[in-house]
Specification:
Helix content of chain B: 40-55%
Radius of gyration of chain B: 24 Å
Order of helices and strands of chain B: HHHHHHHEEEEHHHE
Strand content of chain A: 15-25%
Mean pLDDT of chain A: 93
Structural class of chain B: mainly alpha
Number of strands of chain A: 12
Order of helices and strands of chain A: EHEHHEHEEEHEHEHHEEEHEHH
Largest sheet of chain B: 3 strands, antiparallel
Low-confidence stretches of chain A: 290-304
Shape of chain B: elongated
CATH architecture of the largest domain in chain B: Alpha-Beta Complex
Strand order of the largest sheet of chain B: 2-3-4
Number of domains of chain B: 2
Number of domains of chain A: 1
Distance between the termini of chain B: 58 Å
Strand order of the largest sheet of chain A: 1-2-3-4-7-8-9-12
CATH class of the largest domain in chain B: Alpha Beta
Strand content of chain B: 5-15%
Oligomer: heterodimer
CATH topology of chain A: TIM Barrel
Largest interface: A-B, 45 and 44 residues
Number of helices of chain B: 10
Helix content of chain A: 40-55%
Mean pLDDT of chain B: 96
């Protein structure tokens, strides 16, 4: 059985470009702070050849979490149940304990098909959308037989039909779906600039006891009031301050660095992973985590 | 019909319609243009990069402007059905196979074959291995049934797709047979076949027959005066394919 408690400390999103570097430096002191890795099932389901060998290599050596991109929890087409079954098989096959997705959508049901657009689009924050998305999360959890985490998504457009704040929307969905929160620290910051709110205040409104793990990343500043979530830059200080604040508020939780574009050499990326580990160690000296976290995590365990 | 949808979904439909067709779909009421432009750019660029990465030659051969137009039409008209990113190029191929009249004008006759040829490398690099039951790696290719690598693709094109470059576009049709497979070192290999070898492999793939039976059939098809020489020569070709890892043994 897969155990979520294998997931702890600092992690790194596994990009193809990084694979040879991690493999050649594996076991060395410089990588010691990488405690887990994250992959997108959409990139690894049913692969063969060298990709299958790479996957086997990493699964043998690191705890792995799955972070999906195309489930389209808020999408206009029916939930892709065939795909979800593939995800379930994949999680089982590689003993991957955690699966998270985005509070967003990437399908429009065009011409009666799924209509994948392969990007994360913003769900309008309405009451009806809360019920719609929560029902689809429940359906997902029923099929998988485990809790999933949902990530607060970055956005650039505020929908004029929204009735709720982002925070109220997230809370309502998570509570109605009874799922976990995959907290993206950078996304809070990006949205706070794009939509003008206080990110630290936002942090105080999230259901901290449901955090399964968190993301850190850099973004691109297109204008002073428009940030784009590129994962292509270094993490900036205000985002580090938010992470520190979150550890203070909720105790430490596993935290993973996402770097998808403009990827520097691994030894440079390690600075940010080491920094996550430092923040975690510093926070641990002061605070022990609320026990409710463990209770929530244990309930995420039941695969098979 | 859309009037029956909840307001959030009507908005989502208008939103994605705009992403699919930024030129013709109406802008969204109450949404600042420069904010919407972020989505219009990232969604298209993502798709464009995923497609273009698979077709480095085709994209250059038809030129930047036409390639962009093809991709814009793909974004606008095609309803993608696979959540797997590596299936995007395959879906683009499916789209090219049923082009609109407008699109057809942009496409030279050889484009579909060239795109298919470029995509096969992606396909073969990721095919899952098969471990056939009861395989005899050193079995007799003459008296047993040869088993081919699960990654092998036997291809027949009307153009010499493997020779096309931006500077060397095909002037006429050339019947071309290729074999593509993945070697033990995971590298994708291409072999150009002659028509007879192509026919031999087709026979072995499609009929439950031994190497010698296939070659006897082939000699008949060719009306060859000395079938023994065809069999002898053919078996040496099959042995050669085994040494290259195309044939992995016998049943």
């Amino acid at each position: 059985m897969a155990i979520t408690s294998k997931i702890h400390g600092a992690g790194l999103g596994l990009k193809r470009e990084l694979i040879p570097q991690i493999q050649s430096a594996y076991g060395q002191e410089q990588l010691s702070n990488i405690s887990f890795l994250e992959i997108a099932p959409e990139n690894w389901i049913n692969v063969g050849g060298k990709y299958a060998k790479q996957l086997d290599w990493f699964v043998e050596r690191y705890p792995i979490v799955c972070h999906g991109l195309c489930l389209s929890l808020g999408g206009l087409s029916p939930l892709n149940v065939d795909f979800l079954r593939q995800v379930k098989t994949f999680l089982h096959q590689y003993s991957i304990p955690v699966y998270t997705e985005h509070l967003s959508y990437c399908t429009d049901g065009f011409k009666g098909e799924q209509g994948y657009l392969y990007d994360l689009l913003p769900i309008p924050f309405t009451e009806e959308a809360v019920h719609y998305v929560a029902q689809r999360i429940r359906q997902t959890q029923d099929i998988l037989g485990q809790h999933i985490g949902v990530e607060n998504a970055s956005a650039y457009v505020a929908s004029p039909v929204s009735e709720l704040s982002e925070l109220d929307f997230i809370n309502a969905v998570i509570s109605e779906a009874d799922c976990l929160l995959h907290l993206d620290i950078n996304n809070i910051y990006v949205n706070s600039v794009n939509f003008g709110f206080d990110p630290h205040q936002f942090l105080r409104g999230i259901p901290g006891e449901r955090i399964i793990y968190s993301h850190m990343a850099g973004h691109y500043q297109q204008t002073p009031s428009l940030l784009v979530d590129t994962h292509g830059e270094n993490v900036i200080d205000p985002v580090w301050a938010l992470l520190e604040d979150a550890y203070q508020l909720f105790g430490t939780f596993p935290t993973l660095l996402e770097r998808d574009n403009n990827i520097p050499p691994l030894n440079v990326l390690m600075h940010e992973i080491n920094k996550i580990a430092d923040y975690q160690n510093k926070a641990k000296d002061n605070i022990t985590r609320e026990p409710s976290f463990k209770a929530v995590c244990q309930s995420a365990v039941a695969i098979g | 019909m859309t009037a029956e949808l909840p307001s959030f979904q009507r908005y989502q439909l208008a939103f994605t319609a705009r992403l699919r067709d930024t030129k013709n779909a109406p802008p969204l009421a109450g949404v600042p243009h420069e904010r919407m432009a972020v989505y219009e750019e990232i969604v298209f660029n993502n798709l464009f990069e995923s497609v273009s990465a698979c077709f480095p030659i085709a994209s250059k051969v038809i030129g930047k402007r036409k390639w962009l137009k093809l991709n814009q039409a793909f974004m606008r008209d095609y309803s993608a059905h696979s959540p797997l990113f590596r299936k995007i190029p395959e879906q683009f191929l499916q789209y090219l196979n049923k082009p609109s009249a407008e699109l057809q004008q942009l496409m030279p006759d050889y484009l579909n074959s060239l795109c298919h040829y470029e995509w096969v490398e992606l396909l073969v690099s990721g095919i899952e291995e098969a471990n056939p039951q009861g395989l005899q790696p050193d079995g007799d290719l003459a008296t047993d049934k040869p088993v081919f690598s699960a990654t092998m693709q036997l291809l027949n094109y009307d153009y010499a797709v493997h020779k096309i470059t931006p500077r060397k576009k095909p002037q006429h049709k050339t019947s071309t047979q290729l074999l593509v497979y993945r070697y033990a070192d995971d590298m994708v290999k291409f072999i150009e076949l002659n028509a007879v070898t192509y026919r031999l492999i087709s026979l072995l793939l499609n009929e439950a027959i031994t190497g010698k039976q296939a070659l006897t059939l082939l000699a008949k098809e060719l009306q060859h005066p000395q079938p023994e020489s065809i069999i002898e020569f053919g078996l040496s070709i099959l042995e050669d394919l085994r040494s290259q890892g195309v044939i992995i043994g016998t049943h």
